[in-house]
Amino acid sequence: MTAYAIAHLRPETMNEDILTYIETMQSTLDPFGGSFLVHGKEVEVLEGPFPGTVVVIGFPDIERARAWYASDAYRAILPLRTRHIPGEAILVEGVPADYDAAKTAAALRAEAGLG
Fold first, then answer.
1. Which of 35, 79, 82, 96 has its CA 20 to 30 A from that of 55?
2. How far apart, in whole angstroms, are the C-alpha atoms of residue 96 and residue 109?
3. What is the arithmetic mean of pLDDT over 69-82?
4. Band of the pLDDT at 76, cuts 50, 70, 90?
């Protein structure tokens, strides 16, 4: 099942470390089948405050996403970003193609005794 690395970043100023991080990033993803799905795009905020930008990287599965984040290649460049750009990063597994939110709601309703 597809998995995603998602970062909510609040860049302040551009510098050499950040540019090196961006230039090197794809080479850390390639061995794990990772690819950028969202990068460097302005967000359209519909609800609530949301300073900054979003990065979304897709992986074939959660195991490869975890392995990428823990890899020596990525850990070597990670401080280039974290020293200069505040933000949060998460890994999350996607849902299957046949996912049905109504079925999820029904299960949650039953668990909560509301249905």
1. 96
2. 21
3. 98
4. very high
CB atoms within 10 A of CB 67: 15
- Judge contact between 42 and 53, C-beta under 8 A: yes
Report residue 107 as tokens: 């299960």
DSSP SS3 for 73: helix
Identify the sign of the CA torsion 91, 74, 64, 53: positive
If DSSP codes are grouped into helix, strand and coil, which group holds residue 42? coil
Structure tokens at 56: 């979304």
Count CB atoms within 10 A of the CB of residue 59: 24
The pairing of strands 35-38 and 53-59 is: antiparallel
Question: Given a cut of 90, is residue 115 above it in pLDDT?
Answer: no
pLDDT tier for residue 5 given thresholds of 50, 70 and 90 = very high
CA dihedral over 70, 9, 62, 68, signed as positive or negative = negative
For residues 47-76, average pLDDT:
97
